[in-house]
Amino acid sequence: MHSHFKEVNLPERKKIVLIAHDNKKRELLEWAVKYRDELSKHKLFATGTTGKLLERETGLKVTCFESGPLGGDMQAGAYIADGKLDLVLFFWDPLAAQPHDPDVRALLRVAVVWNVPLACNRSSADFLISSPYFSGKYTKKVTDFTVYKNRKNS
């Protein structure tokens, strides 16, 4: 199948979701405190507990979804599919079984489908936040799914 792309312009002020599994929350909080000034330039979202902790530790306003096991990962995924999130910082724990693993996989998958920058650990988050695109304008290419969406059910 031949893919066509469309360009999507990301503004300087990004809509960023921050998510962390229990064993990674402290690491994400330390990272967010370190980069508080940079994060303050953006609109922040997070899953339940992580969002409340981020607000308390950084003093920044965070729009909270439900917690991950209660559907927060799925809410974030829906926001991505609707073009309402520009960046995903998800410190996930690959060594701990999660009751909502299918939701986590779906979130990671939809981020890749829509070509959303995604950091799954501190090193990747450091690379993303140090990029000139983090707080600058960026034009990304996204697969144009119009043909897929408009096909007849057969």
TrEMBL record:
InterPro entries: Methylgl_synth, Methylglyoxal_synth_AS, MGS-like_dom, MGS-like_dom_sf
Annotated binding of substrate, by residue: 21, 25, 47-50, 67-68, 100
Family matches, as SUPFAM superfamilies: Methylglyoxal synthase-like (SSF52335)
EC numbers, comma separated: 4.2.3.3
One MF annotation (Gene Ontology) recorded for this entry: methylglyoxal synthase activity
Domain called MGS-like: residue spans: 8-154
Catalysed reaction, written as an equation: dihydroxyacetone phosphate = methylglyoxal + phosphate
A family per Pfam: MGS
Record flagged with keyword Lyase: yes
Highest taxon of source: Bacteria
GO cellular component assignments: cytosol
Catalytic-site annotation from UniProt: 73 (proton donor/acceptor)
Task of the protein: Catalyzes the formation of methylglyoxal from dihydroxyacetone phosphate.
Family the entry assigns: Belongs to the methylglyoxal synthase family.
Protein name: Methylglyoxal synthase
